[in-house]
Amino acid sequence: MNRNFTQSHLIFDHNLYFFSYKTWMRRCPDEYYHAHEGMEFLYIHEGEGRIILNDRLFLLKPRTLVYIQPYQVHLTRFESPRLRSVLKINLSLLYPYIRMYPSIESFVAYLEKSRAGEQVIQLSPEQDGEFTALLGSIDHTLSIVPALERKEQFLIYGTQFISYLKTRLFDVRRPPGEDCKAQNRQSHHMEKIKAWIEQHYKEHYSLEKLSADIHLSGSYLSNLFRSFAGVTITEYITRRRLDEACLLLAHTSISIDQAGKQSGFTTPAYFCRCFKKRYLLTPQQYRTAAAASKRYPESSGNAGTD
């Protein structure tokens, strides 16, 4: 297999979400080996290829839906042009908006963490019609609303999208028996940890306080979180703070130092260092780019890499 991989970089709107509907990718052969910090759904309308997930090889063909978890390394290869739709979302954006829907929140947590179920599903012609219509509706709405409303509309449709997956495609695939019960317990603990982080990420992080508040040992919490999320709690909190800083930089006029402070960073220097390490931009450069994308939203295009 040719190992001249295409270098790929996930393009989010303010690093939080991305959507592309029925876009032709004509470069072939084309191969990607990468991972994202957001959850990705890839749907093949036309064309064929292969993907390796969890050391398993899957064939991609028309009506194939793939979901890829945060930080899950995957290899995709296409020998011919393909028509595909892609939806990607950083879950720190989604979770606060789905808390009023406990079953959907639980399902998202299951998708985010569990690797027991299938991640590659072949849709029937009927499901293809429904799913393609839903994607088309998302695309139409995002194309007609003002730029400042796109995130709001994406979250509305994103919740509908997750609901469709739960009720029509994925729910019946949950693993049964004791393994499922154990995973449910672990998912419940993960939900509690993430809820605690969401409430306290702007404060000084203390594993002892987290352990005392959740009533689980610190070593268990740390090991559980790393096994599920692929990162440490500290790394996750830093990323959550950076997500918040991006929103503040893009949508408010507060100073760079205040954006860092309100996001939970202790010093401006540490904030700038973490920000540049993650985004390869300074906070000011990011703010300038965000302002330009609002003035000229079409310049961001429907770029995608898978």
Automatic annotation (TrEMBL):
UniProt keyword annotation of Disulfide bond present: no
PROSITE patterns: HTH_ARAC_FAMILY_2
Ranges annotated as spanning the membrane: none
Keywords: DNA-binding, Transcription, Transcription regulation
Pfam families named in the record: AraC_binding (PF02311), HTH_18 (PF12833)
Source organism superkingdom: Bacteria
Keyword hit for DNA repair: no
Domain HTH araC/xylS-type: 191-289
GO molecular function, a single term: DNA-binding transcription factor activity
Name of the protein: Helix-turn-helix transcriptional regulator
Species annotation: Paenibacillus oceani
